[in-house]
UniProtKB/TrEMBL annotation:
Residues 8-107 form the PH domain. This is PH domain-containing protein. Residues 116-138 are annotated as: Disordered. It holds the Pfam family PH. Gene3D superfamilies: Pleckstrin-homology domain (PH domain)/Phosphotyrosine-binding domain (PTB).
């Protein structure tokens, strides 16, 4: 008898994401099976991006830099190809929890994660909206109002 697929850990909340310009942007982040998705706000349904966690590189806490007033020890990064996403949580403990959950999702068997509720797009990141890559057939997502996840229409 096959072992039951374990439910993936879930997490959602506001984080600050460092933009390419160096400015901090407050965004609503959610985990959904093996994806990290983010939106402009919690109420907005338009997905800005979805990172396919099994296809990203290192996810890690960033040590505090005493010369950087923005780095209070609550920063973490996600490497994706040549880009490093830098996020800031409210506390170091919250940042550590995000890293723990994201690493667990990154290590999950993709088939188990898909079975738990999400289908995989063909790229490591799916972007929608102005100023981003043109949406493809797999890039339209809507938030599921019943949970913190989202689904494709």
């Amino acid at each position: 008898m096959a072992a039951a697929a374990r439910a993936p850990p879930q997490m959602s909340g506001y984080l600050h994401k460092k933009a390419k310009t160096g400015k901090w942007q407050r965004r609503w982040f959610e985990t959904n099976a093996h994806f990290l998705t983010y939106y402009k706000t919690r109420k907005v349904e338009k997905l800005l991006a979805a990172l396919n966690l099994p296809q990203v590189g290192e996810i890690k806490l960033v040590d505090p830099d005493p010369n950087d007033p923005e780095n209070n020890g609550a920063l973490f990064t996600i490497e994706l190809n040549t880009r490093v996403y830098t996020m800031k949580a409210g506390t170091r403990e919250e940042a550590a929890r995000w890293v723990e959950v994201l690493k667990a999702l990154q290590a999950m068997d993709v088939d188990d994660a898909r079975h738990a509720g999400a289908e995989s797009p063909h790229a490591s990141i799916v972007r929608t909206g102005e100023g981003t890559d043109a949406p493809g057939p797999d890039s339209y997502w809507r938030k599921d109002s019943k949970c913190c996840g989202c689904f494709r229409a």
